Amino acid sequence: MSSKKETIDAGILPLLDAAKRAAENAYCVYSQFPVGAALLTADGTTIVGCNVENASFGLTNCAERAALCAAISQGYAPRSFKALVVYAPKMEHISPCGACRQVISELLAPDCPVYCCGSDAEYCRVWSSEELLPGAFSF
Q1: Which of 36, 40, 57, 114 could, after both became Cys, cross-link 19 (CB 3.0–4.6 A)?
Q2: How far apart are the C-alpha atoms of 95 and 70, rounded to whole Å?
Q3: Is-contact 38 19, C-beta < 8 A?
Q4: Distance (Å, rounded) from C-alpha 108 to C-alpha 41?
Q5: Binding-site residues
Q6: Is residue 92 annotated as part of the catalytic site, yes or no?
Q7: What is a biological process (GO) this protein takes part in (predicted)?
């Protein structure tokens, strides 16, 4: 993995498409900044999430955490996921916030790729979950 700009791998395109559709469902009436995420499970299932804002901004839930929480609530085991794609149409590339990085570090395997994509549809940035938050807090 690296945090450099990379051409989107053809195998990730279905996940990117799912993340784009999820972003269309975002509830972002305050920021007007939709984000979608798609998580690939070990059995090949795609689970999506979108950002859901709240007038009390601290209660806002990001797309990445929405997808991860949905997967866990559906019975998928932490650290069993194959890839996560995060998509934001209003910027060239998105990067997970600090809270998402902490959740990602706990629920994705350290080498799980996180693809961060945006309006530059040909490229994305790719990190491993460990690269997103080195020295992450854990028990």
Answers
A1: 36
A2: 20
A3: yes
A4: 10
A5: 62, 97, 100
A6: no
A7: nucleobase-containing small molecule metabolic process
* Under 8 Å between Cβ of 34 and 50: yes
Per-residue confidence (pLDDT) for residue 138, from 0 to 100:
77
pLDDT tens figures, 80-131:
999 999 999 999 889 999 999 999 999 999 999 999 999 986 789 999 999 9
Selected catalytic residue, list 6, 53, 64, 106? 64
Q: b or e along 62-72 (b: 16 or more beta carbons within 10 Å of the residue's beta carbon)?
A: bbbbbbbeebe
Query: Phi/psi of residue 13, each to 5°?
Result: -55, -40
Beta partners for residue 38, in sequence order: 48, 85
Report the greatest alpha carbon distance in the chain: 39
Inter-helix orientation angle 63-73/98-107, to 10°: 30
Residue numbering of the annotated binding site for Zn(2+): 62, 97, 100
